[in-house]
Each structure stands twice: as structure tokens, then as C-alpha cells.
Amino acid sequence: MTISQFQVGVLLQKNKIMKRKKICIIGGGITGCTLAKILSRFHNVTIFERKPNLGGILEEYKKKNNFYLRGCQYIDFESPIVKFMSKKELNEFYVFNQKYFSFNKFNNKELFSKNYAVPVFLLDKEKLKKIKSSKKSKRNNLKEKIEEYPDFISLNLKKFYLKLGLNLEELTYENCFNFQTGKIGFTNQIDKIKEFKSKSKLLDDLYAIPRKKLDDKFVTKSILPKKGFNTFFENFEKQYSKKIKIIKKSNIRPKWDLNNLKIINNSEIINFDKIVWTGNPTYLIKEFNGNKLNSIPTKILQISADVVSSNKNNYFGQFYSDELEILRVFIYKLNKIKKINIECIPKIKDEKKVALNACKILSKYGVDIKINFETLSCFLDVRFNLISTNDKRIIENFNKKTIKTNLLNSPWILYGRDQKLNYYIEKLKREKLL
Question: Are 137 and 145 in contact (CB under 8 A)?
Fold first, then answer.
């Protein structure tokens, strides 16, 4: 559930009667900063961030005097992040109607759709019958989830994941949401798929239809900071530094004392009434019971450049293929300058060639774009956002055993920052901290 403006008002009114506690937040990303802002109304809050700056995964990629978003990052206008923003903070952002697309190329056949940002396929009568006979698995891993689809879909999805070098049996099925393969769309037979979805919970879960088929007035609104996320977090620190204690370049270690978690920063041991650990829990769990998470990395090569001209802005697209190096493309604007991010598999020999190919594909489907190749740059981004089946068991067991401690159980196995943030807010309310 999302947090309504009415609920926000109710939370803020509680400040008058709530006993203030000493609360620590590990991680100075957008989730940690939003929680700190909410909690600081009622409690004494400290943020620990290991990097020199706040921002987490939203910290921008810098190249000389230029900068780019890290990946395809934007904030949903309906997000709790936005609902807890002050007018001053919201004025730092511009609002836009989010447009997206899906480009698919399997077995040398191309398919393009402006109705989805998930894999899409073309249906004939035989394939339509196979869709209707989809069968649910136990979903013990990502391989089982993919095999719920008919072979003309599942075999191509396996090729896509093979290109990424991932072991599908090692990963939880929820990892499909990392790559936007949680649902499958189609370019035809939409009314039939809609009918199937209305009669079957499984088919409703597996397949997508265009949002306009559900609501012809539906518009997806999103926001991006006018001057970038780095500037936004710098302003956040200036605005809230008197209410929130912010410790950057921290070198924290967890210390368990029976059912109490303490934080060691450098050599200082600090006690807190409640600790919210939004960052990677590897060392936290290892210190508790010796279990070590796999922490599977995903390596993404990001190619970025300024855009000379484009008939599209704030345009996001997913690429699904058994051969293309490109995974995602995002055209956006920062400091009134249009930019493009092209996310790829890391084994790229010629970045300019890949960027030219991305522009060529986009031009075939109505996107006229010219890149300033003098600004072309790239960096290798290593992300730890995949959960193995073993890690899931370790985390669930850890959360059960620490439920009565001063650590707030965290939603590390959930995907999506809005989902995680809503979990935290509801959890804090149940523990009467909000």
C-alpha cells in the first residue's frame, strides 16, 4: 500500500505525544534518507553512510565536468518518497509522463512495442492455446518460474539470461523483477489475453496487457531532479542536518550482545533503541551467526553521452535478445541537457559502435536521436541486487531469530525501493515508532 496525504498528517500529529527514542539508520540512500526524515519528527535519528556523499545507488556517474544518472533511475510520482517530500524538495524535480518501450530480437526476428517495458511476443492460434495451458510451478527458483511459460517464451528467456551469465537454478524466482521479466506482453490477441487473465489467477500473474486496455485515461507520472540526484542529496543534508545527525565516511561494524545490536563506528561503541539497516546485510548476518551471503554481483557496462537532438525525452526501453549487447536505454534530461544511458553486458570492445547501433534501432521505431560522441564515456557498474535461493533462506532465518532484538527486520529479499519503503513504514507503525 502507498501512504496517503491524510496518513502523513496523522503521523506528524503523533509527534506531540510520542516518546522520543534514539534511532540509527544504516545507509544514506533514498530509502534511508526518507525514513530518517519521517522518523526525525518523533525521534533522535542518526544516519551512517560509508561513502563521502549521501545518495547510495542514486549517486551519479561523473566524467570530468559532466555527469549522468546511474542506470535508468527515476522516481514514480505515486511513491512514498514523493509523498513525504516538502514543497521545497519537490520543487527541485520536474514531473513528466513516463514513456517506455520494449525491443525484442530472438532468432533474428525483431519485435517492438510502445505498450510495455517487458518481453513481448507475437501470437498465432497454436501459441494462444499454449498460453491458456500455462502451469504453475513451486517457484523454488528462477528456472521454475520461467518454465511456467510455454516453450516459445521460456526458451528465449533462457537465452536472454544465459547471455547475462546467470545460473537460473541458483536464483530466487523474484529476481525476474530485476530484469522486468515478471510478466510477458503480446503485440496481438490482446482481448483474448485479457479474457484469459480475468478467468485465471495464474495467467493474470504471468501475462500483461497494455495499461490503456485497463484504463484509457491512465498516465504514468514520474519525477527526476532538475540538477541531478547529487545536488538533491546535498540540499537534503543542508536542510535536515540540524534534525538528523549524518555521519559520512563511516566505518561501522555490527556487534551483537545477546538480543541487543550495537554499532561500532571506528573504535566507538554506540547503543541505539532501534536500528534500521537499509544497506547490504552481509556483515550484519555474518557477525550474528557466521552465515555468509553469496551476494551475487551483476556487472553492467553503462555507456553515456549528451544528446544533440532527440524527438523523445524521458523515454525508457528494455532490450531482450539472444545476441544484442544492449539491455536498457534511457533518454532523459539533467540541467536542461538531454542525455542518454545505454546499459549493456560488460564484454564490449567498441562503445561507439554499440551506441550507434542503439541509435539505429531507435530510429527504426520513430526515435530520431543524435549523440554528441565527444561526450561519450562508459563505466562498469557492479550491482548486488540479486538474491540466491541460499541467501533467501539465510535472510529469512536471520529475520526470525532477531525479531525480538532492537534491529528492525528489513525487507532485503523484496524487489523495488517503493515496496521496501512501504514495508519499513508499516513495520515502524506496528512497533509504535510512527
Answer: yes
Collapsed DSSP state (helix, strand, coil) of residue 403? coil
- Ordered DSSP codes for 312-340: --SEEEEEEESS-SEEEEEEEEETTEEEE
Q: Which domain range does residue 177 map to?
A: 101-214
In a shared domain, residues 391 and 262: yes
Query: Are 128 and 113 contained in the same domain?
Result: yes
- Beta pairing, strands 22-26 & 274-277: parallel
Question: Do residues 210 and 242 share a domain?
Answer: no
Residues 124 and 199 both lie in one domain = yes
| pLDDT tens-place values along the chain, 434 residues long | 444 554 555 555 555 567 899 999 999 999 999 999 999 999 999 999 999 999 999 999 998 889 999 999 999 999 999 999 999 999 999 999 989 999 999 999 999 999 999 999 999 999 999 999 999 999 999 999 999 999 999 999 999 999 999 999 999 999 999 999 999 999 999 999 999 999 999 999 999 999 877 666 667 899 999 999 999 999 999 999 999 999 999 999 999 998 899 999 988 999 999 999 999 999 999 999 999 998 899 999 999 999 999 999 999 999 999 999 999 999 999 999 999 999 999 988 899 999 999 999 999 999 999 999 999 999 999 999 899 999 999 999 999 999 999 999 899 999 889 999 999 999 999 999 99
Contacts of 107 (CB under 8 A, 6+ apart): 156, 322
Q: Is 401 left (phi over 0), alpha (psi -120 to 50) or beta?
A: alpha
Beta bridge partners of 309: 370
Residue with the three cell numbers 523454488? 140
Residue type, 37: K
**Which residue type does 271 have?**
N
